[in-house]
Amino acid sequence: MDVSPGSTFNRSVWSRIEAAGSCKGLGLSALISWVQLLAIPRIAVTTAAIALFGGILIGGVQARSLQEDRYLQSLKPPVAASFAR
Amino acid sequence: MKRGFLVLLAVIAVGFGGVLIARHFFQAPPSSWLCHEYGLSPGQAVKVEALQQQYGSRCGPYCDAMCEANARLETVTFGSGSVTPEIRDAVTETDRIRTQTRIAMLEHFYAVAAELPPERRKEYLRKVLPLVIESCGAR
Do the interacting molecules here have an ipTM over 0.90? Predict the structure, then answer.
């Protein structure tokens, strides 16, 4: 198949590349504008509250999933002895 | 912009703080996992906790004896050029203590298993028995 420069195929490839580039720019500018939004006290407090809630949720799940390992560790004689002392 | 980044850092710190606080506060005694996992009644939970305490106090002297026996073995092996009767005795002593410890572990595991629902005892033993088998050396 002969694809000559300036054909429909080439144009569509270039337009896709341009679109991808502009999306990257859009993502970065969205991030920057989001960071700028954090300077607003009300949004900062809300975001911090969400982060705290998420952190507590993750920490709770982690603590629960580590319980089985902690129990098995506690059965090892030196650890069991340290719990009893 | 700079203020926004500072707030972002503070938000990340708050999130991590939340994780640490939750991990600390949701940390329960090791045997509480057993009670929750195997649905033990409060009476059984108290009994299991007592067994754990008893097991811990039994392990203490074994650990002390093992440390002493290992130290003696180290002294006699480093001070010798061949296997002497003294070294043989020291090796036998460490093995004797290890055997006693493993038997104490097995006794505890079977005592705890007896408190669990009968249909889940094997499941519990499958989890804990490798601790005794491992102590004789992993292959």
Answer: no
